[in-house]
Amino acid sequence: MLRKFVFFSALAACAGANAVQADMVQLKDNAAVVGKILTEKRDQVVIDIGYTVLVIPRSDIEKIARADSAAALTRTSAPSKNAPPTFASPADLKAGFYSANIRAMPEKSVRELVSQIGEAVVQVRTPSGLGSGFIINPDGYLVTNFHVIEGETQISVAVYHQRDGQLEPKVYKQVRIVAINKFEDMALLKIDDKDAPKFKYVVLGSADNLAVGESVFAIGSPLGLERTVTEGILSTKTREFEGELYLQTTAQINPGNSGGPLFNMAGEVVGITNMKITFGEGLGFAIPIEGVKYFLDHRDAFAYSNDNPSNPYRYLEPPSRTHHKVSDENN
User: Fold this and answer.
1) Is-same-fold flag (2-74; 203-295)?
2) What are phi and psi of 91, to 5 degrees?
3) Which CATH number applies to 203-295?
4) 147 is a catalytic site residue
5) Rounded-to-integer distance, Cα 266 and Cα 269, Å
6) Tens digits of per-residue pLDDT, 30-41?
7) Whole-prediction pTM
8) Domain boundaries, the chain
9) Cα(92)–Cα(85) distance, rounded to whole angstroms?
10) Secondary element (H or E) of residue 113
11) Sheet strands side by side (includes 156-163)
12) What are the pLDDT digits (tens) for 214-255?
């Protein structure tokens, strides 16, 4: 298999030597593959070389050069778990309304990641209860579950700012509902307090790139115990409930975790925790982040209407029917 792979690699290098805006995968045996990288996973890279698509194991890769950043050569050997905690550089991020990594990031310990991203996980409070959420950009936009704020308009958000090595809670009470998708159990909120600073925020990852058995962890407020961290593994990526697919995890999920983030070991959000099986342990579930990205990308279609606060859709009145009165000429 390896010889066959190297043979294809050599052909690809020759065929794409003069290609414009092509990515290059440098192999450890001095061969190279030139084409368009379709996706990067933790254990492999998929590249389109024109006449076929190759799946290259990361163990055979020395470095990668992308066309959009020729100088950004990334070593893809297994990263050390003791690597110093660093955020993704701007070149590694796809920035917009939210941020997402465009290449695989090194894994770190839960302890390192919690200290980096913990400030971006918040507690969402309403008169009838509480849940969790996570901030997706510095302007105070955050995501939570729809059922956390369902039927509520008085919402506050507790953010834990880190100052002088200590966490100081700050409650923001001017919170606006921006968009909701009650059918997928998602809501987009915004902190509008005048004294609100620029917020720390999370980076969104990919649930598609997760492998069953991979380590994940959640941060939330189960039963009101804010900033609780639970760790587990991904049990399955395709658990079906009522026609929807969910991530199943052994990370402990309890009431109050709803709306909080499920992270991979690179500190990227891969799902929104939203339910558990109450008569079992280690049976938590999360909405895959791909659905969340779709919701955020099309947030205008799910815009919240004050005229119809329980539904993202605004219905128009039906047209009135014209009635004709028929007179009886014999009367």
Assistant:
1) no
2) -70, -20
3) 2.40.10.10
4) yes
5) 9
6) 778 888 888 887
7) 0.65
8) 2-74, 203-295
9) 15
10) helix 110-117
11) 166-172, 156-163, 121-126, 129-135, 141-144, 186-191, 175-181
12) 999 999 877 777 778 999 999 988 888 888 899 999 988 888
Per the annotation, the verdict on 48 as an active-site residue is no
Least confident of 52-61, 200-209, 313-322: 313-322
- φ, ψ (nearest 5 deg) of residue 318: -70, 150
Return the ∠ at Cα 234 (arms to 233 and 239), rounded to 5°. Answer: 145
* Domain covering 2-74 assigned CATH 2.30.30.100 in the classification: yes
Q: Given 185, 206, 221, 235, which residue is catalytic?
A: 185
The two three-digit tokens of residue 301, written as one number: 């279609």
Report the greatest alpha carbon distance in the chain.
Answer: 104
Question: Alpha-carbon distance 196 to 176, whole Å?
Answer: 13
Instruction: Count CB atoms within 10 A of the CB of residue 218.
Output: 27
Active site residue 156: no
In the set 48, 139, 147, 156, the catalytic residue is 147
